[in-house]
Structures are given as structure tokens and as C-alpha cells.
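FYI - complex with magnesium ion, inputs then prediction.
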Amino acid sequence: KAANLEEVAAIVANFEINGGFSDAVPFGSGHINDTYRITNSYAACPDYVLQRVNHEIFKNVPALIDNISYVTDHLRNKFSTLMGSANVGDRALTLIPAKSGQYYYQDAKGQYWRLYLFLPDTRSYDVVTTTQQALEGGKALGQFQNYLADLDVSKLSVVLPDFHNINFRLKQFAEAIQNNAAGRLDEVAAEVAFVRAREHGMGEIERLGDAGKLPLRVTHNDTKFNNILFDANDRAQCIIDLDTIMPGYMAFDFGDAVRTLINTAPEDEPDLDKIQLNIPVFKAFAQGFLGQTASYMSTTELRSLTLGITLLPFIMGLRFLTDYINGDTYYKTAFPAHNLQRARAQFNLVEKLEKAHHQLYAIVMHAAEVGMSHTHAKSN
Ligand code: ATP
Ligand code: MG
Ligand code: MG
């Protein structure tokens, strides 16, 4: 399935690179696209990241690329005007044009490829271990939101309709139950009951949105912590993995980041006792994020962030459970009950987050107050 070196070299030849192609190696731990690091034959010229975009999942790749170029252009302008950064290319992804003039190349098999500047000396974290990383990550995601707040949301394409819409996910779940395609329904009675008990409550963000009480913003929609690149000094440098940028609610980005950083265990942890909440890390992240964003959010939107904290792991658990019932047709699995294990781990996290709700709410509101006073101090 992976392309060989000659194939990759031939793909790269369709882009406007500086220098020349030297080597290509599979890179990173992404699950969606195929990623290669392209090294340059000239030391003075940059390296690149080549990605084959997953066309199975993303039906309209040109629209997806347009979203990315619209957003990264805007970010670069912000970094240069607001921060006076000389190296704006370090802070936002840079798409390299193909010789056709478009920011992608479509090969003879119909596959889509794109090329970014490689960001040297960076790293990402699957599990957050220090409050410093969390604070930095929160600032970076908050700044991403902040800098995109004045973009026209209607100019973005909806690349994956209803991606974080709980009603859509519940509909898929109901269909899976009805079909019981893999005959696994009897096994998951407890998990189905867990979902049923929360069906209504988890719909609050969508209801607020439908009632016009939450603004649609430019959201990233895949704010897993490992999509933040850190520099050699452990400062957050750049937000990556921009495929799912589209209109959404702020609570989606906040909630998905918290899902991955507050959990002391991996998302598929089999030993549920190991799933604990890292409150200091959460507090630091909330401080970083709200320091950038609190000043322009309504109280309703601030409250919605705390709803997002339980909603996002619930949605993930629901999607894993649905896939398990369907017989593992969407997610790659390492063993037969992997999706069930993932669902149980996410639902266990949801229960622990529910129990800590008042504490998490207080932390968000406090961080928002501090964030607002910072903004005022700065602008005075
Ligand atoms: P996911 O499963 O998270 O959706 P993905 O398949 O969409 O992943 P990316 O997250 O875009 O892939 O990239 C995969 C990995 O490649 C990243 O985790 C990061 O380590 C590395 N990477 C991506 N872009 C760059 C870049 N411009 N410079 C340096 N490293 C990069
Ligand atoms: Mg990624
Ligand atoms: Mg991705």
C-alpha cells in the first residue's frame, strides 16, 4: 500500500520545491493520511512533509485544501502583524504549490498529495506529563482560535458534515443496533444502557447552537494534544493536522483537547483504575486557552466549554461502540475486542469527568476571569 521511493520522488517532482529530492521516509504516527518526510539534497534548502490525503474519508479534497490555505494564510498574516515574527513559517503550516498552481497534486490513480514545509526540531506528546506542556498547548490552541475569530466562517467548506454532531452519532448508533450486523449486541447491554441514560443531556450544545445561543466559529475539530508541535525548548510552536478545519463550536476544540490531556492513561486503556483525571494539567491548559479567548466569549459559550469536556469523550466512546456493533468496519483494530475496550475506556473517563463536574466548572470559570483581567491589563 505504501508508495516506494521512486514513486514518492516522482510525486514530489510535481511540486515547486527549492533544491532537490534526496530521500523519503514514512513519518509520524498519524492514522489518517500517509506521511513522508522528504529530505533535500541541498543542505541550505528546506525539507518537506509529503502527505497522501485519505480520499476514502475526505470526499472533497480540493475543498479541504482550500480551507487549509485560507486558514494558514490568515494565521501567517496575524503572526506577522501582531507578533512581528520574522519566521512566520515556523508558526503556521506552509503549503507548497504544485506546478499546476494548485496546492495539491492528483496522480494518475486519482490520489491526492500535498506538500508542507517540514518544521525541524519539533516534537509532539501523546500523553501530557507536565503543567508547562499543558499551559503552552492551551495558549497555542487559544491563540489559534483567537487569530481565526475574525475569519468569515461561511467561506469554509464543511469537509465532514455533522462530524461532532451528537444527534448524527446517535442516529448511526441506532442503525447499528437495529442491524446488529456482527451479532454482538447481547454483549454490550451495559454500554448501550450507558448511552441511553445520557442521550438527552449530551445534546445540550447542539440545542444551544440551534437556538442561536452559541456562535459557529472556525474550529480545528481534531485538537488531540499530539497535533500541537513543540520546539526544542518545549514552547508550543505550531498547530498541525488541519484536515478537519470547518465551522464548529468552540466547545468541540476545548473538549477534544481536554479528552486527551486530562486522562492519565491512553484512550484504549484496559485497566479502568488507571484512568484518572490529571487536574493540575487541566487547570494549566484552561488557563492557557482562556487567557487567549475568554475576553470575547459570552457566559453561555464559556459554560458550553464545560459541556464539551464530557461530550467529546462520550462521542468518541459512542463511535467506538457503534463500530464494535457493526463488526469493526471503520477503525483499525489490533485485536477483536479493541473497539469495545476503547469504548469502555472513554465511557469510564466520561463517568469520572461527570463526578468532577463542579470542580472542572469552577476551574474554567476562574481561568476565564483571570484571562479577562489579563486582556484588560494588556489593552490599557
Ligand atoms: P491523525 O491520525 O492525528 O489525524 P494524520 O494522519 O492526519 O494524523 P498529521 O497529524 O498531519 O497526520 O501528521 C502526522 C505526524 O507527522 C504528526 O504527528 C507530526 O509528528 C508529523 N508532522 C506533520 N506535519 C509536520 C510538519 N510540517 N513538520 C514536522 N512534522 C510534521
Ligand atoms: Mg495528527
Ligand atoms: Mg489528521
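The radius of gyration is 21 Å. The CA atoms of residues 173 and 322 lie 5 Å apart.
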